[in-house]
């Protein structure tokens, strides 16, 4: 079955950086666009970034443009989210997402806390 396992979250100071990873299994990873979402405390889940199958095209939420970079390694079945210039508003649980066969699949998320 489809499994998405996020890692790389943690506590970081404002202005710092983190790189998240999402290891995928149970489907042909290279055939599907992948996305990162996040959910901050008390807020709805929001789309952060999306990458196409071969990584040729990416899209970002306005709030992270220029600071976050999504990438993928199809040989490793892994999608990444490199985050720079983090600020407290980036504090959230970050989720990996794929839409496949009419269903959406989520990982369990990884918590990113930006605080001094």
Helix content class? under 10%
Q: Can you summarize the main beta sheet?
A: 7 strands, mixed
Evaluate the radius of gyration.
13 Å
Structural class: mainly beta
Strand content: over 45%
Global geometry: globular
Please, what is the average pLDDT? 97
Tally of alpha and pi helices = 0
Beginning-to-end CA distance, first to last residue: 40 Å
- N-to-C order of helices and strands: EEEEEEEEEEE
Low-confidence stretches: none
Number of strands: 11
In words, what does this structure look like?
The model has no long low-confidence stretch (mean pLDDT 97). It is globular, with a radius of gyration of 13 Å. It is an all-beta fold and 116 residues long. The N and C termini lie far apart (40 Å). 0% of the residues lie in helices and 53% in strands. It has strands at residues 3-7, 10-12, 18-25, 34-39, 46-51, 58-60, 68-73, 78-83, 92-100, 103-106, 110-114. The chain is built from no helices and 11 strands. Strands 2, 4, 5, 6, 9, 10 and 11 form a 7-stranded mixed sheet that branches. A 4-stranded antiparallel sheet has the order 1-3-8-7, with no helix packed on it.
Keywords:
116 residues; mainly beta; seven-stranded mixed β-sheet; 11 strands; globular
Topology:
Elements: E1 3-7, E2 10-12, E3 18-25, E4 34-39, E5 46-51, E6 58-60, E7 68-73, E8 78-83, E9 92-100, E10 103-106, E11 110-114
Parallel strand pairs: 2-11
Antiparallel strand pairs: 1-3, 3-8, 4-5, 4-9, 5-6, 7-8, 9-10, 9-11
């Amino acid at each position: 079955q489809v499994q998405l396992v996020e890692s790389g979250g943690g506590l970081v100071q404002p202005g710092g950086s983190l790189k998240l990873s999402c290891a995928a299994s149970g489907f042909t990873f290279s055939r599907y666009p992948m996305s990162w979402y996040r959910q901050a405390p008390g807020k709805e889940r929001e789309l952060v970034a999306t990458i196409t199958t071969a990584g040729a095209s990416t899209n970002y939420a306005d709030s992270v443009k220029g600071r976050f970079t999504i990438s993928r390694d199809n040989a490793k079945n892994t999608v990444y989210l490199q985050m720079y210039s983090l600020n407290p508003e980036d504090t959230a649980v970050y989720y990996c997402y794929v839409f496949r066969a009419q269903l959406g699949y989520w990982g369990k998320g990884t918590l990113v806390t930006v605080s001094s």
